[in-house]
Each structure stands twice: as structure tokens, then as C-alpha cells.
Amino acid sequence: MTSSFLSGRLALSLGLSSFALAIPAVPALSAPATPAPLSQLVAAVDIPYEQFTLKNGLRVIVHTDRKAPVVAVSVWYHVGSRFEPKGKTGFAHLFEHLMFYGSENADGPFFGRLEDIGATDWNGTTWFDRTNYFETVPTGALDRALFLESDRMGHLLGAVTQAKLDTQRGVVQNEKRMGENEPYGLVEYAQLAAMLPEGHPYRHSTIGSMADLNAASLADVQNWFRTHYGPNNAVLVLAGDIDVPTARAKVEKWFGKIPAGPAPVDVDATVPTLDQDVEKLMHDNVAATRLYRNWIVPGVNSDDLPQLDLAMSVFGGLSSSRLDNILVRGEKVAVGVKASIQSFEKLSIAEITVDVKPGQDPIAVGKRLDQLLADYLKNGPSADEVRRAATRQLSGTIGGLEKVGGFSGKAVTLAEGAVYSDDPAKYKKDLAAYAAATPQSVGGAARKWLGRPVFRLTVAPGQRSPEDNALAGNATHHPAYFRDPNKPPPAAAAPPTPTKVAEPEIQPVKDLDFPAVEHAKLKNGIPVLFARRATVPVVRVSVSFDAGNAADDKAKLGVAALTTALLDEGTATRTSIQIAEEQERLGASISAGNGMDSTTVGLYALKPNLDASLGLLADVIRNPAFAPSEVERLRGQMLTRIAAEKTEPMPIAQRLLPPLLYGQAHPYGIPFTGSGTESGVKAATRADLVAFHDTWMRPDNATIFVTGDTNLADVMPLLEKRFGDWKAPAVAKGSKLFRMDRMMRPARIILVDKPQSPQSMILAGLLTNKRGIDNPVTLITANEVLGGSSTSRLIMNLRETKGWAYYAGSALPGVKETIPLLIYAPVQTDKTGESIIAARQDVTDFLTAKGTTLAERNQTINSQILSLPGSFETSSDLLGAIMRNRLLGRPDDFYEKLPDIYRAMTPADLDAAAREAINPDRLIWVVVGDAKLVRPQLDAVGLPVEMGTLAD
Question: Which has the closest alpha carbon to 766: 792, 788, 746?
Fold first, then answer.
């Protein structure tokens, strides 16, 4: 239900991340590890802070963390879609977009100015109760960031124009279309309409209705700003390389003269209960029937909410949850289950979902679900279940607080407590409640809130009905308007006389000081790379193998994915359930998956539990059982995943494009989603999985990476204990053959029909003449100008100038061998052809007559250099960087040398790199959309058009 503006760097997921699923039993019990007590975990979570309030009412919270020369800036306004009057749905979010398009002393795109100063983790989001804006900036750029935030808080209206409003209205409407174009994309509308009464402030979605968005006027913008965006309705958090005296002086300078707004007026909301059970059936283009069970439950300040959260985790949230163990592992009637709480200020939404295994009767599975819930409410959870759920919650909180900013860092934690609960330390009370929970308290909360009438929703495969489409508030739905849309809008007031405030200079920012990378070897020769990051008591380990999707069996694509999915589903001494439970008791998380070039098994571990967690990791890697019953269950889940990918716009394109670019014989000529093909997964045998493991996942093909709160001397004995005696099997180690065929692959458009799509997904690609191991830094930097940054040519044209797309861009995926250039944009259906024409022109111009300007070069280089200190803040960031360097053959100090490499680049260098590597006449375009509406537009593009399908 969150709507967000846009992430700082658009990245196209190519299926290079991990993929792990769950599976049942195998033999004997192993001795359980003794985990750290919950009290020790609670004590590890602390965010010291001080706060003060300016005369104008702005509340300021300061937390000092000197681990990196960066400061997180987070501004929370206590206003969201709950505060919207009738006929103005979607306005809070639309206004959030306008806040990114210039203020009186800093006109133009806000995100461009953020990139100028090297901001990372920046965004803006709107939800029911709040709107927030946040960025992490180098310490030397803090004054600039505060100037920008204060200028849009105090001096916005003089820069808001009708043209900006019209453009952002189109962008938001395309964001809405994008969400509704996904499978299950209309569910939220149905849930809110069924569970909340007419007039309830939470009843409408944050994204709003098309009609209301069309009705928004400049006068509405002015009134919203003056009513809700005063400093006395905001909280500012500064977390990082800052102290209170410095913060006080800077905040007073930049925000102190902004006058207070009207006294904030809260919009209260009840926690309603349905009079009786409500059932609804919807149809959608989905691969599996999904069953929902929903209730409205209390908000974040209720003592019942932590208990209810644990209750949901035990029932369907843990890997060893009741629903996982019974419906997925045991009875095998479901391929996925979830149970969770979406928490808000005044109320929350409890949700259970079950994805029914294709071929099973959804009605029977629904009855079984309700039976299991009734039994759970009657008998409650066990003490061990409660402890495991609480440990997982505490472990996740500890990991999230390694960052100062972003979506889950310390600034967000303090701000949320202040805004929702008037207590920045609210997180401490919540964690104490989790740690003190008992089976009685958890079971009591579950009976109290989940024993009430329920909303049962079923979404089955089929065509969306007009009635379901109307729930989204699109053209077929006409709400009660705040004003008559047939009458002229109220006249906007004259903009205020601009207040002149000078933009501050950026203070010197030191180049990145990358942590030292230490090297060692286990006695069996496995290399170990280590870097220390001791902010929180967490250690991350990744065992990486030179394999990946590129090593998959071409005759049975999907063997690699099935192998990694089965690793944590049973070993010679542990069952699937035992592995899940042991992770939960330890607060650990093991994940296995394939990138394009490597297969990795990763561990997130709490420092006190590291030794036992490594024991579990080693067992999973070295001794997978590949039990036949588990192979069959995972096969069913993988086939359902592939079927689901064939219903989603981007995965459809990601499956279709790679063989067109590389040819089917090339190791990269496979679906970028990493799931293989339907025929390959069906044909894979247990022997194939064992063979993949023995050929690729072996000690003479492995490297171990470690980062976090330990040191090499302490971790080496633990690694020796778990991996040092691992011997390679007798079979030969695998090798990959990278060779291009000589087939011509002419430019063309392949159209995939997706009826009823409100948008078209465009994904185009070509092969450059560069490999990842060539380390083409200049080419990658040039791509920032074309489509890699938030101010790139492609996004500024398709999103900001034309308003046809929510996002657009280009990417050069970090593969080891031949790198593709990919261009992507989800666009409104009626602009599909024109969008391709515009994107082709942008690419051609960039590579010919309109190359990189000096301003573009300067902004790109500044952004790249200044963002480096904030890019390696966490142990996870470090781990990824070290692994990338190893994969691509780069030195350990690669990132430290980057600033000088960037500074030496000229506009001509960027142009030369792009023109030498990219031939725009080779672009192949895949379009996923409603063919009857899109096909007539494509003739004007000037390329051959053919229909495409996803048979496999």
C-alpha cells in the first residue's frame, strides 16, 4: 500500500539474485544449538538520541554514528492519504511528486540536485498516515541537503506551475497503471472496500482514483501545502556523522525562519469489525489461485499489536510456520503461504494468504485453512514457536539498524516513533514486548482479533471483470467529488513573492576510504576474504562457487535453480523443518541462489550465535539430501513460479529477450529470471541435481567471503572447523564455454499479447563489445547519462517531459562475459509506439549529434565520486563489493581508485566509450501489452514486427 517516488538509481533486475524455496523431511535429529538469550538481543538494539524543537514547532532528533562520513536526513510530515477529503483521493501522493520538482530557490528536479551531492538511499514515500522524504549525504554536503529540504518546506509554491502539475499527474497515473498491471494488482482495492465502511479515512487506496487525480488543481496544491506542510507538522531526523551542537546551529539557520503552519488537525479512525463473514471471488491473469483472509486490527500504539504480530508469524510467517509445515511441506496442497501484519497509526491489516497448488481444489484448501486457523485460535502457539518468532523479529531489527538512513535504518526508526507514538524510542518498547511474549499473551491476542468475522477473498485465474476493474477507481468508477468536476476549478492564488536564499557550497568531502580486505586460505585451499564492519553485532558469510545460471544444463534449464532451492530443504542429518527451526532459534538466515556467473549460499548470523550458524550453513552446503519427495514438491513450486512469470510484464520480457540476443547455445542465452524452462524443470531428475552439486558446488570451486562484527583471527578457526576438511568429489570440476555464434540478429519488435493490460512493458537489448572482466568503467559511466541515473536522457524524456512512464532507463548488467545494454520502460498503452520512437531517438542522438554535455559529465562524475562514502555503509554493502571485485578480477582497492579514474574522464571519453561499444541499429525490442491496442501503433516505428509467445 506504499506509494513511493523513485529510487535514487533505477536498476533492472535480471534474475541474478537468490531464489530459495522450502521443503520437507529427511532423517535423524541433530543436537540443537544454544542460542543467545532474547535479553541479550534486546540489549544490542540501541539508538541514542537527543531532540529539540524550534520556535516554529519543527521537532528535531539527532543521533550520532561516526562509522562513515555521511548523514541521513529524514523529514516526516504527519499527513497521508488518511487526511484526504472525498473527491481528492491520491492527492497526498501526487503532492509528494510535486515536492521533487523545484522550489523557489532551487528550481528544477530535486533528484538531480541530490545526485549532484552524492546522495544515496534517497526517496520520498506516501502512506495512509505520513509522507516522508529522505536522503543520505556526505557530511560535507549536509548544508546543501538542509537548504534543499528547508526550501521545499518553506518556499515551494512560487515554483509550482500548471505544467508541472499536469506532468506529475500523468506520471502518477502511470504508476497506478503499473501497479494494476501486475498479477493480483486489484486486490488492495477490494480489501479496503470490503473491510472499511463508507467514509472511513483508510477506505481509499493511497494511489487514488483516476478521476480524482484528473480533478486536482493548482488551488488544491496550494491549500494542501499551507494546511499540512508547516514545520509544526514535521519531524526532522539527522543520523550519522553529526552531533547536537552542530545540528542545532545548522537546523536553526536553514529552518528557523520558516513560519509555523496552522495547528495540525488529526483525522481519527475507528477499528471496525465486520458484522459477519464476507466472501468475494475475483479473477485475474494469475498462475495460481490465491486465498486471502483479512481482518482490521489495532494500530501501532496498541499493546496487542506485537502479540498479534508474533501470532501471525507462528501461523504463517516463519519458514517453519504451521501453514508451511502442514499445507506446503506436509499435505502439499499449497505452493506458498504468508501471514503478516501491515501496521499503520490508527489501525492495521492482518493478512493470511495461501497460493493453492495448481490442480488442487481451492474450496477444499480454503476449508482446510479455516480449520487450521480455528485449531490454532483454540490451542494457541507453543513456547518454542513464540521464542523463535520473537528471535526472528529481534534479529531482523538488529540487521536493519546497521544503516543510518534508507527505508529501515536508524533515522526512519526514530522518526516513525516520534510521528506515530510521540516517542522516538518506541522501538525499545516494542522489542521488549516481543521478548516478554508468552504463549498465553500471543494466543490471547490472536483469539481476540482473529476470532472476529473475516473477509475471505479468492483470486482465481481468469479475465478481470468490469466490476473488479471499477474497484480501482478508474474510468468506470465515479466517486463523490469534493467539487463538481464539470465546473471550472477554483482559481489558484497568485504565487508568493519568492524569498531569496543562497544555495550553500559543498564543503570538502574526502574520497572513499574502503575497509582493508584481508586474505587467507583454509587447509583445503578454499580462499577466504574478510573485511570488518562492526556497527551492529552481525556477521555475514557468503560461500560462492564459479557456476551460476550460466552453468545450467542447456537440455534441462532449471537444474541450477532446483539445486539451490533444495539445499536448505534437508540434509543427511536434518529435516527441512529442523533446518528452518534452527535458523529461527539462532536468529540466522541462510539463502541460496544463482547469479548469472556464480552460485552463492549466504548466511546472516548474530555474532553470539556465529559458530552454531556456521555449522548449519556447512551442513546445508556439504550434505544436501535431495530427497525424492522434496524434489517433486520443489519441482511443483518451480513450475508454478515459471507460470507466474508468464503472467508478469517484466518477467515475460526477461524470459523472451536473452535467447534473441545471445542465441540459445550461449551460456547467457537463457531466461534472465533464473528459473529455467517448463520442459527443463519437468525433465530434471534427482541425479541431475546431485551431478550439478558435485560438479560445481565443491571446495576446489569455492571462495568464502566474510564481513561484519568479527575479525579474521577469530573467524578462521570457525571456518576451518566447518569447511577445512571438505574434499572435492572424484568427478571433474565444471567449466563454461563462452562463444558467440555467427548468426545475424536484426533489429525488430516482438510483441507479446497480454490482454487487458493498462500499460505496455518495453524491454530492448543489444550486445555490446565489452565483457565485465574488461572493467569498462567509462562505458558504465556514459550509461549514467543515457539511462542509468534519475536525471538521464531516457527518464527525463519519457517520464518528466512526456509523462508517459513512471520510470525508464538503461542498464549494463554486471556479468562477467559479454555485457548487454538493456533499455526498459513501462508506458501507457496509447503511447507505446511513440515511446519506442522517442527512446530510439534518445539513443541515436546520444551516440551521434547530441553526445555528453559538460554539465552532464560534471553532474555524473560528482554524483559517482560523492556517493562512494555512503555506498559501503553496511556489512552487506561491503560483502557485495568484495564479491564483485573478485568476480570481475578487480583489485581490492578498486573502489578507492575510482575517484581519480572518474576525474580523468572527459565528455569526449564518455562519448567514445559509448559509440565504440553500442550499435543502436542492433536493438531488439520486446513489448508486452494488449496487442489489439498496441499492434496498430508499432507500424509507425519503422521496424519489422512479429508476434512472440512463451511456450516454454
Answer: 746
- Cα(318)–Cα(67) distance, integer angstroms: 33
pLDDT at residue 603 is higher than 90: yes
d(CA 23, CA 580): 10
Number of helices followed by number of strands (H, E) in the chain: 33, 26
β-strand 278-284 against 455-461: which pairing, if any?
parallel
What mean pLDDT do residues 881-909 have? Answer: 97
DSSP states of 536-589 as a string? SSEEEEEEEES-SGGGS-GGGTTHHHHHHHHTTS-BSS--HHHHHHHHHHHT-E
Please write down the HEC assignment for all residues of 322-370: HHHHHHHHHCCCEEEEEEEEEECCCEEEEEEEEEECCCCCHHHHHHHHH
User: Is the separation of the CB atoms in 299 and 347 below 8 Å?
Assistant: yes
Residue 768 has pLDDT above 80, yes or no: yes
Report, as an integer, the average pLDDT of 294-302. Answer: 98
The confidence score (pLDDT) of residue 475 equals: 35
Pairing outcome for strands 59-64 and 234-240: parallel
With a pLDDT cut of 90, the percent of the chain lying above it is 83
C-alpha torsion 64→67→73→77, nearest 10: -60
Query: C-alpha cell of 490?
Result: 477554483
Place of cell 487525480: 213
Q: H or E segment at 829?
A: none
Q: Could you tell me if 172 and 800 are in contact, meaning their C-beta atoms sit under 8 angstroms apart?
A: no
* pLDDT for res 486: 44
pLDDT tens sequence across 628-667: 999 999 999 999 999 999 999 999 999 999 999 999 899 9
- What is the Cα–Cα distance from 327 to 354, expressed in whole angstroms? 9
896-900 long-range CB contacts below 8 Å, 24 or more apart? Answer: 896/511, 896/512, 896/513, 896/514, 898/512, 898/777, 898/864, 898/865, 898/868, 899/511, 899/512, 899/865, 899/868
3-state secondary structure at position 518: strand
Those residues whose C-beta lies under 8 Å from the C-beta of residue 359, and which sit 6 or more positions away, are none
Residues in the chain: 952
Spell out the residues 6+ positions from residue 576 whose beta carbon is closer than 8 angstroms to its own: 22, 23, 24, 25, 26, 329, 568, 569, 570, 630
CA-to-CA distance for 365 and 291, rounded, in angstroms? Answer: 9
Judge whether 160 and 909 are in contact, CB under 8 Å: no
Question: pTM of this prediction?
Answer: 0.91
What was the pLDDT predicted at 170?
A: 87
The C-alpha cell at 869 is 562514502
Q: How many CB atoms lie within 10 A of CB 766?
A: 20
Average pLDDT over residues 802-827: 95
Task: Mark residue 475 as left, alpha or beta (left: phi above 0; alpha: psi -120 to 50; beta: remaining).
Answer: alpha
Work out the average pLDDT over 30-42: 76
- Which residues, 6+ apart, have CB-to-CB distance to 448 below 8 Å? 304
- For residue 498, the model assigns a pLDDT of 63
Q: Can you tell me whether residue 61 is helix, strand or coil? A: strand
Least Cα distance to 335 among 711, 749, 23 occurs for 23
- Neighbour count for residue 725 (Cβ, 10 Å): 12
Packing angle of the helix pair 162-180, 218-228 (nearest 10 deg): 80
Let me know the angle formed at the C-alpha of 205 by 202 and 210, rounded to the nearest 5 degrees: 135
Q: Are 92 and 83 in contact (CB under 8 A)?
A: yes
Q: What is the pLDDT of residues 535-588, one digit of tens each?
A: 999 999 999 999 999 999 999 999 999 999 999 999 999 999 999 999 999 999
Residue 176 amino acid letter: K
Closest listed residue to residue 697, CA positions, set 738, 734, 668, 736: 734
The SS3 of residue 122 is strand
DSSP bridge partners of 532 = 708
| Residue whose C-alpha is closest to residue 169's, from 828, 839, 837, 929 | 828
Place of cell 505496455: 760
What's the pLDDT score for residue 741? 77
Cell of 423: 516517542
Q: How far apart are the first and last CA of the chain?
A: 33
- Cβ atoms of residues 346 and 129 within 8 Å: yes
DSSP class of residue 801? Answer: I
